[in-house]
Write a structure and sequence with these properties.
This protein is 29% helix and 26% strand. With 466 residues, the protein is α+β, with helices and mostly antiparallel strands. It is globular.
Length: 466
């Protein structure tokens, strides 16, 4: 009953954010994050163009969200190698949560409009065939997570409005997409978010995206709080739970964090050998690629409608320019997510020769910050196929141009779907199977197989609940 539960959560959350409709717009020219002058729609109160006929003064636009983040971080509109010094604000931080005011979920809950109804704004979010660019939506989610994190801790502000905190994305929980191939690119999208769990120096932000009051995306971002210099952790405001629903949501957030720790420690193939069944599968696949006539382990052939995993690679090199910076003068995590998704999508398109539909994104962990001016290398590879679904793995590495040393920034796992237009049952004809050649590729295959199996099980459960 997962879908029904999520729909109920979405409706209950929306109920105190969304009200009756009345709109007031004014046009504002502003330089966007890509350096292009575009026309933004300023939604001072509400907008009816999302088709839902709902919103109130809690709804803000993307510019208001970005302006608030820049203000509390003391960031400037123009790039400078010197970040605003906020070390003197450390005295505003506290050593114990007992000294900080507890905040309710509604204190920092927010809804932000992505005004696709504005044709001058819309182009940034359009694909070449008129569908939505999900990578840009991921970028906006990163901004919303930061906005809510600072709002939750907003009582701790200096006289000039700057915050003593530096909020950083540590992890993105599984991102789920539903009915995403039916998004109307001429109607506004609403991003909804709220704090769902708080630790000592970290907090989880649950977010949804909707159009015409129909949710099509949900995820959680785990944010960590550092002091203004970013050198040490900072204690955040505790969360005040005012209802049984709040307490249940808080417990779910704690369970997700614990589950991630357990899975990382016990289920990673980097530390734990494959199961017996998995090793038998690898050996079976190996035997399928041997020639029956050569009697040689080195003579390899491909079964019908199959490709070698090594042939599914696609790479990209990105110079990280200042326009991709965040308020801390590092490369914005949302930008990295967008570039990874678009590389994975391009690889999926090349792999199947048909436009792929993004269905899910596995947990994303931010291992290392990326500096402005760095060379970011991204490599993608199709790891496993179970038609019509398949998983593309993208690894982002920071390259030290002077030493050649590579540092992993992120590893992404994207689940795509490709179905023939004529007969969905013929998916195997357009999605070839992949076969590993080496032991390392076999581990990638098994890791991807675990992830894809989990996603497919969820897809089936959702179909049963509809």
């Amino acid at each position: 009953m997962r879908v029904n539960k999520l729909a109920t959560q979405f409706r209950s959350f929306s109920s105190y954010l969304l009200g009756s409709a009345s709109s007031s717009q004014q046009q504002l020219r502003r330089n966007d994050s890509s350096g292009n002058w575009v026309q933004f729609a300023r939604f001072s109160t509400t907008s009816t163009s999302d088709g839902g006929g709902s919103s109130q003064s809690d709804v803000i636009d993307l510019l208001q969200m970005r302006d608030f983040i820049m203000k509390v971080c003391g960031a400037t509109q123009v790039y400078s190698e010197h970040v605003s010094q906020r070390e003197q604000l450390r005295s505003l931080l506290r050593d114990s949560q007992d000294d900080l005011e507890a905040r309710t979920i509604s204190d920092s809950a927010a809804t932000v409009t992505v005004p696709l109804s504005n044709p001058l704004f819309r182009e940034r979010y359009l694909n070449t065939n008129g569908t939505i660019r999900y990578g840009h939506l991921l970028e906006e989610l990163g901004g919303l997570a930061g906005y809510i994190s600072y709002q939750h801790n907003s009582p701790t502000l200096s006289a000039d409005g700057r915050s003593p905190y530096s909020m950083v994305t540590a992890m993105v929980d599984e991102l789920i997409l539903r009915n995403n191939n039916h998004i109307d690119t001429t109607c506004d999208i609403k991003m909804h978010g709220h704090v769902s769990w708080v630790g000592k120096s970290s907090l989880e932000i649950t977010m949804y995206m909707s159009q015409r009051e129909q949710m099509f995306l949900e995820t959680q971002f785990l944010m960590v709080a550092r002091d203004a210099s970013g050198s040490k952790s900072a204690v955040v405001h505790p969360l005040k739970l005012t209802s049984d629903a709040d307490r249940k949501m808080f417990e779910s957030g704690a369970a997700r964090k614990l589950l991630y720790q357990i899975e990382t420690a016990k289920e990673s193939l980097f530390s734990t050998p494959p199961t017996v069944d998995e090793m038998n599968l690898v050996h079976y696949m190996f035997l399928q690629t041997l020639s029956s006539t050569s009697k040689s382990f080195s003579s390899r052939i491909l079964p019908e409608n199959s490709v070698w995993m090594d042939s599914t690679k696609m790479k990209n090199a990105i110079v990280c320019f200042p326009q991709s910076r965040n308020v801390h003068n590092k490369v914005f995590g949302g930008f990295i997510m967008r570039m990874a998704l678009e590389l994975g999508w391009a690889n999926a398109y090349s792999f199947t020769k048909k436009r792929p539909i993004p269905r899910a994104i596995d947990d994303i962990v931010f291992h290392a910050p990326v500096n402005i001016g760095a060379l970011l290398l991204m490599s993608s590879q199709v790891c496993v196929v179970d038609p019509p679904y398949y998983l593309v793995r993208v690894r982002a590495e920071i390259s030290n141009a002077k030493t050649g040393e590579l540092t992993t920034s992120n590893v992404f796992h994207f689940t795509f779907e490709s179905t023939p237009d004529e007969d969905p049952a013929e998916a195997e004809k357009i999605v070839p199977f992949v076969y590993p050649k080496t032991y390392g590729e076999s581990m990638l295959y098994l890791d991807g197989r675990r992830r894809l199996a989990k996603q497919i099980l969820r897809f089936k459960e959702e179909m049963e609940d509809i």
